[in-house]
Every structure is written in C-alpha cells, then in structure tokens.
Design a protein that fits this description.
The two termini are about 40 Å apart. The protein has 13 helices and 19 strands. Helix 4 crosses helix 13. It is of the alpha+beta class. The strands form four sheets. Strands 7-11-12-19-18-17-14-13 form an eight-stranded mixed beta sheet. A five-stranded mixed barrel has the order 2-3-4-6-5. A three-stranded antiparallel beta sheet has the order 8-10-9, with no helix packed on it. Bound molecules: 4-amino-1,4-dioxobutan-2-aminium adenosine-5'-monophosphate and magnesium ion. 4-amino-1,4-dioxobutan-2-aminium adenosine-5'-monophosphate binds next to strand 12, strand 18, strand 19 and helix 13.
C-alpha cells in the first residue's frame, strides 16, 4: 500500500505510490483504458487504469465502479501538465468501500427544485464544494480580521423573549409556560457585551419569517454582528469597509482554484478596497429620480433601486442617514437633523443589494424610553436594554453583515440559496 494522502497533496509524492480515499465522480472508458475521476473533498484527480498494466482483476474491479461509489485507489503519482491539479494517478490497485446505484444527480443539467430536494448529494459536486470552501474562508477571514483588531467574540442567545428588528417576522416557540422567539439579531445582547468588553462580535444564525421569495432572502441566515463602545457613526463605517475589503482580498488570495471552478470573473473583485464611496439617503433619492425611478423622500428602496445605485460604483457603496421613520427604534438621530438617523446600509455591486446594515445606537436614557413608548414596546421584556443607558451609558455603534449575501456577491451566485449548505427558504425545510 502506498502512503495515504489527499488529492491536494499528491504533488509531494511525484513518481511514488500513494493511496487515495474518495468517491468516483465520473468515469470514461476506451476499451483497454479506464479514466476514473476521483474526488476526495480536497480536489478532483484523474486515475488511469491500463488493462495491460493492472491485470484483468483490477481492471474488472474498476469497470464495476459506478458514479459516487467510494473507493481506496492505490497508484503512482505522475506529473501531467494538462491536468487541473497538475498530476494524474496510474492505477495499481482498487478497493471498493461503499456501493452506489442509480445516483440521482447525473452529470446532465437538473432543475433547481430537484437539486434542492437532493441538497445532501448536490453538495458533492465540484461547484458546490467550491462555494462551501469559500464560505468557510469568508468566515475565517471575518473572525481573523475582528480578532486581530481587538474584538472579543461573544455568543448571544438563540431563544429570546423579544424582537430586535420588528415583530412581524418572528418565529414563535414555547419556552415552558412562556412565549419565546428565535433570534432575529443578537444586537441588543451585543450592546450589553460591548459595555463589558469594549469591542465585541458575534457570528451565528438569525431567523426571519419573511414572506419574501427573492434571490436575496433566506429564512435562516448567518450574521456577524460587531458592536463597539465609544464608536460614533464614522468610526462604524470605517470598520465595515476595512472588514469587507479584508474579506474580499483574503478570498482572492486563498481561493484562487475555487473561484476558477465556479467561473467567477475576479476582475470585478480586485477593486474592492477601502475607502468605499458614501452617499446620503437624500443624494440617493436625487440620483434615482434623475434616473427616472418613481420614488419620493421618505420611501424605502426596493431591489431595483439598490441595484441602480450600486451600478454607479466599482466597489460597495454606503447609503447613510435614512429617514428616522424608515429605520429601527434604537438608531441615534443625527444631532443636526433629527428627521434622519446615523445609520448606513452597505450596497454590494452587481445587483447583490444590502450586505451590511448598521447604525450608531441611542445612548440617552430619556430618548430611548420615549422611543419605547412611541413603538409600544413592552417594558418588562426590554427593561434590561434600558438599564444599559442608566449605568455609565456611552455613545456606541455596530452593524450586522449577512454571511450568505456577502458570499453570493463574492462568488457571483444567481441566488443566496447556493451559499448556505442547507438553505431554509420560504416553503422549504427539507432536507
Ligand atoms: O439590516 P438588518 O436587518 O440589521 C440588523 O439585524 C441589525 N440588528 C444588525 C446590527 O446592527 N447588529 O440585517 C443585517 C444584514 C443585512 O444587511 C443582510 O446582509 C442580512 O443581514 N440579512 C439577510 N440575509 C439573508 N436573508 C435574509 N432574510 C436577511 N435579512 C437580513
Ligand atoms: Mg437592513
């Protein structure tokens, strides 16, 4: 038996015998030679079995292998300029581990509903594997950037007694004899944590019962939520643009092969470097009106509006200072213009829409209490949040960046569903 290794490391064994463990992705035969495409999670490599070299028994064993059967393959590593990995395996021996018959995902085109029904198998294809690798790399880069910038990771609860972003989109459940909801955002808990630790972030799932069936919406998605004590609105935007540029440049350097596998035009990502352009909501309205969009001051942007705005730039653009009426109750009013708040949405290029939402938070006790009354928010579930404004309150800011939307944009995906391993969509909870 040759040394056990993985496809991404065969370059260390040029000319030597190795054993690979994986699955038969595809097979082709020309009578006396068989070409097996083996995948093992780290890559795909061609294994060539020549009848006159391997003998009848091994050749017959290769012939029996079907798509997605699992195998040990022993073979000699050979340099091959034409191969994507740069190498090929000359088969010496083969041992089947698990059979596979009538594999439903053939190499022809399938409809997206069929693929989503078979997501547990669909994720094995090179394209889906590449996206999942990029997802892991995006998560790693986000954590690395924040860890190295002095943030402490804090994990907020998933079961909560109240809402953060509005009550209509909550998933209700029972918590013994109380009502509970799956978290929409950990922000309020992160505000408490920022008063304990200074700069904090969370990374976890958020749940929204949104009846939106668009290419940007998931019912369960992941959000990274930094929160910073003593940070104002401008400080907040600086962290966001530095984080997003770091993540994009990290993926460009660490996921070259994966970006190639999914056919991403990376020239569109090279220019994503801080600082990002900033326009106010007022300017955005004027621009859109000039482009012929039917939109008045005070109205929220729809997907076509966001796309039209983002199209004017080669990197993400901040739209800041939205009308107070349009945004969440906790946002700090602009001291010079209380009809707008110190918030920003970051719009990604190429029609991917809002990837980050953030703001400076109200730190004044009386103003926040007034907002609670205006929004009819119950004091018993929010009392602790008001407390933060009673004991050493400080200006503070934070944001939430959506993991799937960020990945969908970086990968150039048609829909966010491909960026999550098991997407929860309107009308889809399986598999
Ligand atoms: O703008 P949102 O709703 O902001 C908040 O939840 C704040 N409490 C965050 C904070 O300040 N700590 O959501 C933030 C981001 C959006 O910009 C988007 O990227 C993503 O979360 N997002 C979704 N992604 C996929 N599917 C959905 N249904 C999403 N809803 C929001
Ligand atoms: Mg938002």
């Amino acid at each position: 038996m040759g040394t056990i290794t993985t496809i991404n490391e065969v370059n260390r064994y040029d000319g030597q015998a190795v054993t690979l463990r994986g699955w038969v992705y595809n097979k082709r035969s020309s009578g006396k030679i068989q070409f097996l495409q083996l995948r093992d999670g780290t890559g795909v490599i061609q294994c060539v079995a020549v009848k006159s070299e391997v003998g009848d028994e091994v050749f017959a064993a290769c012939q029996q292998l079907t798509q997605e059967s699992s195998v040990y393959i022993e073979g000699t590593v050979r340099r091959d300029e034409r191969a994507q990995s740069g190498y090929e395996i000359s088969v010496i021996g083969v041992e089947q581990v698990g059979e596979s018959h009538d594999y439903p995902i053939t190499l022809k085109e399938h409809g997206v509903d069929f693929l989503l029904d078979h997501r547990h198998l669909w994720m094995r294809t090179p394209r889906q594997r590449a996206i999942l690798k990029i997802r892991a790399e995006v998560e790693r880069a986000m954590a690395q950037f924040l860890d190295e910038s002095g943030f402490t990771r804090v994990d907020p609860p998933v079961l909560t007694p109240s809402s953060c972003e509005g009550t209509t989109e909550l998933f209700h459940t029972e918590y013994f004899d109380q009502d509970a909801y799956l978290t929409q955002s950990g922000q309020m808990y992160m505000e408490a944590a920022a008063m304990a630790l200074g700069k904090v972030y969370s990374m976890g799932p958020a749940f929204r019962a949104e009846h939106s069936k668009t290419r940007r919406h998931l019912i369960e998605f992941w959000m990274i939520e930094p929160e910073m004590a003593f940070y104002g609105h401008d400080d907040n935007l600086r962290v966001q643009e530095d984080l997003v540029s770091f993540v994009v440049q990290h993926v460009l350097t660490h996921c070259e092969l994966e970006l190639k596998t999914i056919g991403r035009d990376t020239s569109k990502l090279e220019s994503v470097r801080a600082p990002f352009p900033r326009i106010t909501y007022d300017e955005a309205i004027e621009k859109l009106q000039a482009l012929g969009h039917d939109l008045k001051w005070g109205e929220d942007f729809g997907a076509p509006d966001e796309t039209a705005l983002a199209e004017q730039y080669d990197r993400p653009v901040f739209v800041e200072r939205y009308p107070t009426e349009l945004k969440a109750f906790y946002m700090q009013p602009d001291p010079n213009r209380p009809e707008v708040v110190l918030c920003a949405d970051l719009l990604a290029p190429e029609g991917y829409g809002e990837i980050v939402g953030g703001s400076q938070r109200i730190h004044d006790y009386d103003l926040l209490k007034k907002r609670f009354e205006e929004h009819n928010l119950p004091q018993d579930t929010y009392g602790w949040y008001l407390d933060l404004r009673k004991f050493g309150s400080v200006p503070h800011s934070g944001f939430g960046i959506g993991l799937e939307r960020t990945i969908a944009w970086i990968c150039g995906l048609e829909h966010v569903r491909e960026s999550n391993p098991f997407p929860r969509l309107l009308y889809r909870l399986y598999p």
